[in-house]
Amino acid sequence: MKIVTTNIDVRYAETDQMGIVHHSNYVVWFEVGRTEFIKDLGYHYAEMEKDGILSPVVDINISYKKPTLYGETVTLKTWVDAYDGLRITYGYEIVNEQKELCVTGRSVHVCVKKEGFRPISIRKYLPKWHDLYEEIKNKNS
C-alpha cells in the first residue's frame, strides 16, 4: 500500500486554551496530507485547477482517539482507501511522538469542471492520474 507521511508541528494557534488541538484543524491537516500524496505522484492541485478542474470534498469522517497537543510533532499518514473512476477516498491516521494513534479519518472527493461544478470522469479528463490510482487500488486489494 502506498502511504505518504507528513510531519506536522502543532502550532499554538491550532490549540484551545488547554493546549489541545482544536478539532477543525484536522480537516486542514488532512488537506496537507492529500496535497503531499498527490505531489508524491507527480501531480499538483494548482495545475489541475489551471485546467479548470477542481476536486471538492463531498464527504468527510473524523474519529478522535487521543488529543494532540501544542509543541508536539505529529505524523500524518495518507493513502488511497478507495477509487472507482469517479470518486477518490483518502484515508488518514495521525500519530503522536509516542506513536499513539490520535485521529483517523476519511475524505471522499470527486473531480468537477469549474464551470457548472458537475462531476467528471477522471478516466476521461485525467487519464494518467486515473491509471496511477487504478494501479494503487489494485496494489491495495
From TrEMBL:
InterPro entries named in the record: 4-hydroxybenzoyl-CoA_TE, HotDog_dom_sf, YbgC/YbaW
Keyword Hydrolase applies: yes
An example molecular function term from Gene Ontology annotations: fatty acyl-CoA hydrolase activity
Protein's UniProt keywords contain Hydrolase: yes
Sorted UniProt keywords: Hydrolase
Matches recorded under PANTHER family: 4-HYDROXYBENZOYL-COA THIOESTERASE FAMILY MEMBER, NOVEL THIOESTERASE SUPERFAMILY DOMAIN AND SAPOSIN A-TYPE DOMAIN CONTAINING PROTEIN (0610012H03RIK)
Sequence similarity: Belongs to the 4-hydroxybenzoyl-CoA thioesterase family.
Protein name per its UniProtKB record: Uncharacterized protein
